[in-house]
């Protein structure tokens, strides 16, 4: 029997074929069109992408920041659907010729990372989105060592890999000093499969103690709750102190 990982990889390869089978004129260099094509496809196939109703919540959190965001960290790339959307949002906020816009996105599987890179090229946002293969925590430390991601230089971190890593990877961001006052932290699927330790931490405002990063946090339901239990919650947190 095919393992869960194999199904997700097979679906990722199928979605690449689907995108390349569509009229390319409408998709090439159009990140929103690619995002929407992927979202539409995901209604009929099993894809673990960040869907439109949830993206609307995140987009609102990004577009209402006091200073428009430029640098985003994403934990969990898969087919690059959300990474393409982040790039589209950054471009909308800053215009097509802005410099210094970056989405660093982490993916442990080389196979799906290749699909993501391909779709990112179709969307024309490869100058903004950098897909880094390996465990997210190791990749992030390396980016900081290389000076690509700077202290207080992260405007938004998006957690969408495996929920058991959300809290430790959030704390890694804190330990590396990456947040500033006003940074947003967004997490998907905090209800199912769920990240109770992550939620408890943010609802308590963070680690506590002198010199710690402090948060305010809010849980959003992306759709009315249905009979069929499916992941629905997006957690949007704001850094209110980053000493
Ligand atoms: C829910 S999917 C990401 C979906 C993506 N954000 C989107 O909307 O298209 C989660 C991905 O995280 C990857 N992943 C899981 N644990 C990881 C880790 N520790 N480091 C990097 N990637 C990880 C998985 O291989 C999977 O492709």
UniProtKB/TrEMBL annotation:
Family: Belongs to the class I-like SAM-binding methyltransferase superfamily. Cation-dependent O-methyltransferase family.
One protein family per Pfam: Methyltransf_3
The protein's name in its UniProt record: catechol O-methyltransferase
EC number: 2.1.1.6
Species, as recorded: Aspergillus ibericus CBS 121593
Enzyme class: transferase
InterPro entries, A to Z: SAM-dependent_MTases_sf (IPR029063), SAM_O-MeTrfase (IPR002935)
GO annotation terms (biological process): catecholamine metabolic process; methylation
Keyword terms, alphabetized: Catecholamine metabolism, Methyltransferase, S-adenosyl-L-methionine, Transferase
Gene3D superfamilies: Vaccinia Virus protein VP39
GO MF assignments: O-methyltransferase activity
Family annotation (PANTHER family): CATECHOL O-METHYLTRANSFERASE 1-RELATED
């Amino acid at each position: 029997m095919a393992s869960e990982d194999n199904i997700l990889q097979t679906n990722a390869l199928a979605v690449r074929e689907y995108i390349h089978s569509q009229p390319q004129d409408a998709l090439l260099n159009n990140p929103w069109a690619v995002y929407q094509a992927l979202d539409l496809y995901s209604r009929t196939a099993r894809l673990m992408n960040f869907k439109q109703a949830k993206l609307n919540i995140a987009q609102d959190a990004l577009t209402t920041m006091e200073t428009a965001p430029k640098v985003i960290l994403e934990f969990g790339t898969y087919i690059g659907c959300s990474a393409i959307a982040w790039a589209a949002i950054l471009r909308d906020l800053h215009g097509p010729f802005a410099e210094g816009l970056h989405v660093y996105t982490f993916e442990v599987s080389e196979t799906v990372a290749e699909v993501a890179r391909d779709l990112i090229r179709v969307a024309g946002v490869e100058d903004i989105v950098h897909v880094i293969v390996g465990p997210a925590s190791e990749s992030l430390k390396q980016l900081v060592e290389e000076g690509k991601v700077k202290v207080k230089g992260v405007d938004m971190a998006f957690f969408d890999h495996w929920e058991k890593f959300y809290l430790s990877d959030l704390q890694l961001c804190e330990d590396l000093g990456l947040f500033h006052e006003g940074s947003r932290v967004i997490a998907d699927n905090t209800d199912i499969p769920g990240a109770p330790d992550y939620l408890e931490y943010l609802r308590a405002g963070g680690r506590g103690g002198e010199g710690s990063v402090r948060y305010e946090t809010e849980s959003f339901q992306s759709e009315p709750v249905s009979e069929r239990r499916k992941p629905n919650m997006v957690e949007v947190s704001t850094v209110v102190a980053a000493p």
